[in-house]
Model the fold of this input.
Amino acid sequence: MKIAITTTGNDLNSPLCERFGRTPRFIVYDTDSGSFEVFDNSVNLNAPQGAGLQTAQNIARQGVSCVITGHCGPKAFTVLQKAGIKVFLGQGSMTVKEAITAFNEGKLQEAQSPDVEGHW
Amino acid sequence: MIIAVASGKGGTGKTTVAVNLAFVATPRPVQLLDCDVEEPNAHLFLGGQPAKKKEVSVMIPSVDEGKCSGCEECSNFCQFKALVVIGKTVLVFPELCHSCGGCRLVCPEQAITEVPRPIGVVETLQVRDDLTLIYGTLSIGVAMAPPLIREVKALASREVPLTIIDCPPGTSCPVVESVKGVDVILLVTEPTPFGLHDLTLAVDTIRTLGIPFGVVINKAGLNYSPLYDYLEKEKIPVLGEIPEDAAVAKAYAKGELPVYSVPGYRAKIEEIFRNLKAMVNGLEKM
Done:
């Protein structure tokens, strides 16, 4: 299974990014092989609008089942839901690796709805 | 002649100046356009008979999923991310759509048609025989003012000799849309740091647009000299000053027009209008 984690860095020891749409990068991690790939998201970091939508579309393209981020607004949530991607909420104090461990141990909460307003 | 009343900062007295001007300015008849569609309020001071009401819509895409191949051309084309493609499902976000119609044109499957999305209403009030008000009201939850402002301006008569446009505050798209095509802009400011700050933004915007303008200092008498220094340095014509006066605020709070209820106010507005006309005539001779 592939999961996407929003991050400010380039590897598994980087911090989780709490912002979804305007995350600078995201990591796609394969739980079966333990391999990962980093995707640049800087275009959306600077987008005037629609950052959440576009980030969700980019993540959906990678064929992931779940995404771990800090917060997710209504439009991004709608897209992820439509793509069948579950949203799990972590904290910015976690590294990507810690977020994956917490996810594997079932310690992360699944968001049933957007947890913030748009443009928070 | 078409005059826009703008300000930069909100609450400087745009609507007060525009509405009072609409009663005393000549030649008549006059039409007043309230383009502050997010918060129209000129009608509160005017009364009169409702003459017309028009529902306004913009066109947004509707996708036939039976025809969609999921190629993402539409989503890639859209500068505003109003379409998102997930597999063969296209999600449309109407509030982000600027109604350019581009997605329909680039769709290789002809899967996109356009459907109307209501955004607000434009109403016409016959205030007096010689004064008409046209104003737009954006629907709650709609964030895009320019299409409705365009409709307010489109419904204005081309035959009326004098049109006064009450603009929204700020310097962004709604203001630019409101002042587009006017002959002159009357910028209402106040002698405060906020008034000056936002005036400089408005001046920058208007100079970029290349429209002649003059300034009216409302609530004058607050002795804020940086405003006067700025106007002098930038060689901006001051068309008049309206003194700070509690009687104006009281009249406003009662929905009365200061030109009729506050002594000396009418003379001030007439003076401003004379100076404005002289400025425009001077420009035409150049």
Summary: Residues 52 and 96 of chain A are 20 Å apart (CA to CA). Residues 2-110 of chain A form a domain with the Nucleotidyltransferase; domain 5 fold (CATH 3.30.420.130). Chain A has one domain: 2-110. The longest helix of chain A spans residues 51-61.
